[in-house]
Design the sequence.
């Protein structure tokens, strides 16, 4: 009567097998590891050999080195060895490679090869830094307008078109002409060369003819998208410098970037380097006699700014920007070949090299200033003296620097100028020890809750309670397996959602068991009661899960961060609970009772009948 | 074991007025507290900075406060957080200061005062993000309410949908009332708990509505009051056991989940307790007063729903 067809058992068995395999990796502890990756150089078996040789020659014992698409990973016995290994490898491999500390699962290789990985822990569980950065779009557009007005000026000059003025007004570039013919010529030329611009003609004061050029809407959007993309690229470079094993840098919405750095221990340094949302400018130092004195006295010379150098020295710098940071293609710390002083070697791109050549030819013996502009505040990183004309785009800055300073300056220059300044609008930092504590607390809540629940259900419903508990266990197994499979981020609220989902999932079994008791109370035979219990409870289970799911989906849509973690687990848990509470528990019931032709009673605890209140009967 | 041995239908409806008065009073109290004291919005919604620091010894708050006071950051608070060696420092938003700079300045001041201090956690939410989180939270609540009303109206009848959502929103207001009275911190996690509990409590209403419909069909002669009483009585055992089980899990989070999940679990606990009350004793009288009748639910042409007999 309560038999179950073979295919249903096969489905359950397959689900269980998959569940076990994918849950398994979570039971292996994480071990310290060192990860070698590179944005520039190739990672191959030859490098793997180099890594192993380096470790062997430094007498560092390691537990296997593997090569995978993300890089080379070396497992190490403890954290001290890990740090030693990192130093050895970084020294051996040089700056082209990123050597990062990481934690790796110690699960056997065959599990990883079927894609069974431990759950992906959120930052609140493993520790790390989360930033939400907002790109200042107005600044990005301003910058674009600036470059357009410069370009248009040189175009008009090249085409020998007579114009009386060109300036930036609001979001537009305004050109002024004296006669109609020149204006039309200009418009034709600009339209041909700059298809992204749209035009409006107007008449200014005194019969002056104006041509107003602005970006087309689609071009505007492209500028904004590119600004975000360029900033993401720059953030990647900066993060690479930090040596983080699995950084996440993603666009969020139209104007924001999320940066997540799991496992970062030195959060202050991370913030320092990331937070340096700066742009770089090269300007000339105003070396006119008396300029510094009068600036310090309160009257800064016209066309100049008074800044301070990193050393704290005041310096007067001309306002004109001769070169911007986006012309810098690379910057590396190193040493001056002649004096052996720490130095920064800079490579400029083609146009940058030409500008620089001209600049240095005209200004030998003068000082230029490399200015870091950070949220409207400018700081002079270094102000070297130009010793000779520098061609070919290869520049060396040396003198008055420590090694550390050289590498900081190089990093700042290499990271390049951001397309637009960024501001941290959200930050969440969790220390690694707090993360471990959170895991432990989450684990405890689930375990203790589950045990108490299981004891109660088993005592109240006897064998049917045991079956319900097994179904609940299967639910937990499947939930963890799916979370591992999807590599969905598990957060502390996510663990709470596991506990909550289990507490809610038992509802389905309570409904079924209560219904069976009720059927028995009304005098149904045990087999009929089982049948009716499962069938009639199903509609209610579906209803209740749908209302819960509505709440889960709303949270998924509108939630962010840790709350989304909660919603993901909640929704998945509802789905797995429907499978386990109904399908699996029914399967077990069929195994236990299905083959008995004559079933006298079901072990579901006492079924109280109103008529026999004085002497409760067991059914 | 069988907890519930009920001989006769419990006359819930006879006391409907009493229950409704109790509901109304608690509801109004909650509203009054919400209006006068307001919610103590956490950093998620209000913006600002929270720093959790751990010491090697019990925190000396006077020293912590004195150290931060020197920085002139305006109003701030420093409190114990779960354990005696952990302190939670809250700083309001300040124009023109970046979060990075702010938390670092506080940390360096604390380190100068006592080198054993360790930064455990920093949360900074800017004003814009806080506003967005607030708006998204409100939208999520709206979506849940509309979704549930729509589903119940489709599944049963509009009067059930309206009664169920009023009953459960009444829970939400009461949970919020608790947060207003005790000035517990209202964070994103608490909002998630409220939405989860809203979806969950509606189950109760679904189960009872199902039973009322089933009874209208079976108990041809019975009055509406009798039908509702019987529906509540025959589902009460399941209601209490289910909620009890869920409550066990939630209490486990409350006791073992640590300080971070404390208010989340608290909101769930209150929500589950009031969920039982409201779906049983608020929703059913509302349905009756809205004038639901046998004809509204037992429609001969709606074969599919009429075939279902539910617990």
Sequence:
């Amino acid at each position: 009567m309560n038999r179950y067809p073979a295919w249903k058992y096969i489905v359950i068995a397959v689900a269980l097998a998959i569940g076990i395999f994918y849950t398994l990796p979570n039971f292996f502890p994480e071990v310290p590891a060192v990860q070698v990756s590179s944005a520039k150089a190739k990672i191959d078996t030859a490098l793997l050999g180099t890594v192993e040789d380096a470790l062997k020659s430094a007498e560092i014992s390691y537990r296997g080195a593997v090569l995978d698409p993300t890089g080379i990973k070396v497992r190490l016995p403890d954290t001290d060895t890990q740090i030693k290994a990192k130093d050895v490898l970084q020294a051996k491999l040089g700056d082209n490679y990123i050597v990062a500390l990481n934690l790796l699962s110690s699960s056997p290789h065959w599990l990883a090869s079927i894609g069974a990985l431990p759950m992906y822990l959120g930052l609140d569980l493993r520790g790390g830094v989360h930033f939400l950065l907002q790109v200042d779009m107005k600044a990005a557009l301003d910058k674009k307008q600036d470059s357009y007005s410069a370009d248009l000026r040189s175009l008009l000059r090249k085409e020998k078109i007579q114009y009386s003025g060109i300036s930036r007004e609001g979001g537009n570039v305004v050109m002024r002409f004296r006669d109609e013919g020149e204006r039309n010529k200009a418009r034709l030329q600009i339209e041909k060369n700059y298809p992204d611009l749209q035009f409006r003609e107007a008449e200014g004061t005194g019969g002056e003819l104006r041509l107003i050029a602005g970006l087309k809407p689609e071009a505007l959007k492209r500028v904004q998208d590119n600004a975000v993309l360029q900033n993401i690229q720059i953030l990647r470079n900066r993060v690479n410098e930090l040596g983080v094993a699995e950084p996440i840098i993603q666009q969020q919405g139209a104007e924001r970037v999320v940066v997540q750095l799991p496992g970062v221990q030195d959060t202050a340094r991370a913030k320092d380097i990331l937070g340096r949302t700066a742009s770089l400018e090269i300007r000339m130092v105003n070396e006119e006699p008396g300029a510094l004195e009068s600036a310090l006295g309160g009257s800064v010379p016209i066309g100049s700014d008074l800044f301070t150098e990193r050393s704290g020295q005041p310096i007067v710098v001309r306002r004109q920007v001769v070169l911007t940071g986006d012309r810098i293609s690379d910057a590396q710390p190193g040493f001056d070949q002649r004096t052996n002083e720490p130095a920064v070697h800079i490579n400029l791109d083609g146009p940058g090299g030409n500008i620089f050549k001209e600049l240095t030819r005209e200004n030998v013996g003068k000082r230029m200033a490399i200015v870091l502009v950070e949220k409207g505040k400018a700081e002079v990183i270094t102000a070297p003296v130009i010793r000779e004309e520098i061609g070919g785009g290869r520049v060396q800055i040396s003198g008055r620097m420590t090694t550390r300073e050289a590498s900081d300056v190089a990093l700042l220059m290499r990271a390049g100028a951001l397309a637009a300044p960024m501001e941290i609008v959200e930050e969440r930092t969790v220390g690694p020890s707090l993360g471990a504590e959170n895991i432990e607390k989450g684990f405890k809540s689930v375990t203790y809750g589950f045990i108490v629940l299981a004891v109660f259900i088993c005592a109240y419903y006897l064998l049917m309670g045991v079956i319900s508990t097994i179904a609940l266990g299967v639910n937990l197994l499947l939930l963890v397996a799916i979370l591992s499979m999807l590599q969905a981020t598990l957060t502390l609220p996510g663990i709470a959602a596991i506990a909550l989902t289990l507490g809610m999932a038992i509802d389905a079994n309570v409904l079924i068991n209560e219904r069976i008791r009720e059927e028995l109370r009304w005098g149904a035979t045990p087999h009929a009661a089982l049948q009716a219990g499962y069938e009639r409870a199903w509609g209610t289970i579906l209803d209740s899960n749908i209302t819960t799911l509505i709440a889960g989906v709303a949270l998924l849509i509108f939630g962010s961060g840790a709350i989304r973690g909660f919603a993901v687990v909640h929704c998945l848990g509802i789905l797995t609970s429907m499978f386990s509470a109904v399908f699996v528990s029914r399967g077990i019931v069929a195994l236990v009772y299905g083959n008995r032709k004559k079933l006298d009673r079901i072990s579901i605890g006492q079924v109280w009948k109103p008529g026999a209140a004085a002497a409760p009967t067991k059914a | 074991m069988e907890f519930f041995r009920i001989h006769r239908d419990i006359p819930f409806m006879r006391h409907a007025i009493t229950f409704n008065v109790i509901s109304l009073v608690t509801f109004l109290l909650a509203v009054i507290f919400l209006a006068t004291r307001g919610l103590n919005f956490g950093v998620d919604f209000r913006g600002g900075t929270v720093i959790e620091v751990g010491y090697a010894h019990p925190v000396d708050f006077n020293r912590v406060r004195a150290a931060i006071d020197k920085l002139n950051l305006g109003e701030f608070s420093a409190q114990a957080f779960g354990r005696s060696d952990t302190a939670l420092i809250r700083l309001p938003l300040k124009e023109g200061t970046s979060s990075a700079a702010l938390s670092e300045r506080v940390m360096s001041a604390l380190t100068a005062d006592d080198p054993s201090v360790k930064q455990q956690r920093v949360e900074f939410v800017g004003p814009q993000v806080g506003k967005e989180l607030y708006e998204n939270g409100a939208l999520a609540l709206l979506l849940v309410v509309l979704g549930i009303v729509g589903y119940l109206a489709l599944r049963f009848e509009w009067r059930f949908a309206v009664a169920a959502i009023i009953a459960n929103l009444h829970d939400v207001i009461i949970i919020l009332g608790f947060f207003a009275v005790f000035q517990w911190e209202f964070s994103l996690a608490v909002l998630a708990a409220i939405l989860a509990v809203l979806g969950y409590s509606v189950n109760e209403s679904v189960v009872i509505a199902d039973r009322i419909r089933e009874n209208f069909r079976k108990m041809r002669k019975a009055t509406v009051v009798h039908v509702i009483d019987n529906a509540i009585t025959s589902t009460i055992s399941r209601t209490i056991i289910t909620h009890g089980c869920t409550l066990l899990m939630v209490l486990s989070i409350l006791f073992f989940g640590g300080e971070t999940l404390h208010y989340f679990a608290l909101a769930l606990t209150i929500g589950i307790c009031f969920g039982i009350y409201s779906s049983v004793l608020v929703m059913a009288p509302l349905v009756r007063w809205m004038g639901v009748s046998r004809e509204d639910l037992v429609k001969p042409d709606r074969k599919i729903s009429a075939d279902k007999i539910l617990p």
